Amino acid sequence: MTTRSPEFAADDEFDATDSEVDGQARMSFLEHLDELRRRLIYSIWALAGCFAVTFWFWEPMFRYLTSYFQSNGGSLIYSAPTSGFMFSLKVSGVAALIVAAPFIFCQLWLFVAPGLYKKEKRVVVPFVICSSLLFFAGAAFAHFVAFPMMWQFFASYQIENVKFLATLDDTFAFYVYTLLGTGLVFQMPMVVFFLARFGIVNARFLLKHIKYAVLAIFIIAAVVTPSQDVVTQTVFAAPMLVLYVISIGVAWLFGKKTPKESKEA
Fold first, then answer.
1. DSSP state, 226?
2. pLDDT digits (tens, 9 = 90+) for 41-57
3. Looking at residue 167, what is its pLDDT?
4. Half-sphere exposure of residue 262: CA atoms within 13 angstroms, side-chain side
5. Cα(164)–Cα(22) distance, integer angstroms
6. Distance of alpha carbon 127 from alpha carbon 121, whole angstroms
């Protein structure tokens, strides 16, 4: 009876793991659609459950947001009879989305998990926590920094015989776009994590193109920032620069190693 060396045993274990991953990854197109449908249904049910809770507190949220909007400049009005009621529904919906964000990120992870290795699936809890914290950080930045700066700038265009009277619907739509857009931008490290795991980008690539990234970030900051002063643009660009640096670290830690890098390690 022959025995195999530890090296061959490790290779067999690795091949078995690869076979298991390949078997899980070879899902048909219809199976992928069915999995996506299931994850979307779970997310919708989570949103509905959170909405039932947040709608119970629509009045304090209504008062807080209207005073928050007015404190940043301009007067709020609404002309359609249903605008006030629809605003309470929209506020409750956005609050429900924020509360349900961790569960939605968990469903996203479970959707892409079949294409990952077993050891990569174990990071589901860190992924959900990090994604949720980044989303909350982006929403907080939008609420306390981005939206007040932009809204105060737009509201400052009040000259003689012209008064800024913002409608409730337009104000809240602008607020939600800022909130969700910034929250998604703050997901940059998580996006880089998946790109690095699938070998699309690596830390060397991101570091090599950092000067172009800095230029692009400041261009984006100049576009989304209403004011043209450097200080305001830097305030908007600083979080994105920090996120890019964090993304380089994420790509270095979790990116696929090339044969050359594996030998050096």
1. S
2. 999 999 999 999 999 99
3. 85
4. 5
5. 60
6. 10
Phi, psi of 201 (to 5 degrees): -130, 165
Q: pTM here? A: 0.74
Residue 98's nearest CA partner among 160, 175, 41 is: 175
HSE-up (13 A, CA, CB side) for residue 25: 11
CA 108 to each of CA 12, 111, 147, 231: distance values in angstroms, whole numbers, following the listed order: 32, 5, 28, 37
Contacts of the segment 253-262: beta carbons below 8 A, 24+ positions apart: 254/193, 254/196, 254/197, 255/196, 255/197, 255/199, 255/201, 255/202, 255/203, 256/196, 256/197, 256/198, 256/199, 256/202
108-137 pLDDT, tens digit each: 888 877 666 666 666 677 878 888 999 999
Structural domain spans, the chain = 187-265
Of the ranges 88-92, 94-98, 219-223, which one carries the lowest mean pLDDT score?
219-223
List the beta bridge partners of residue 77. Answer: 167
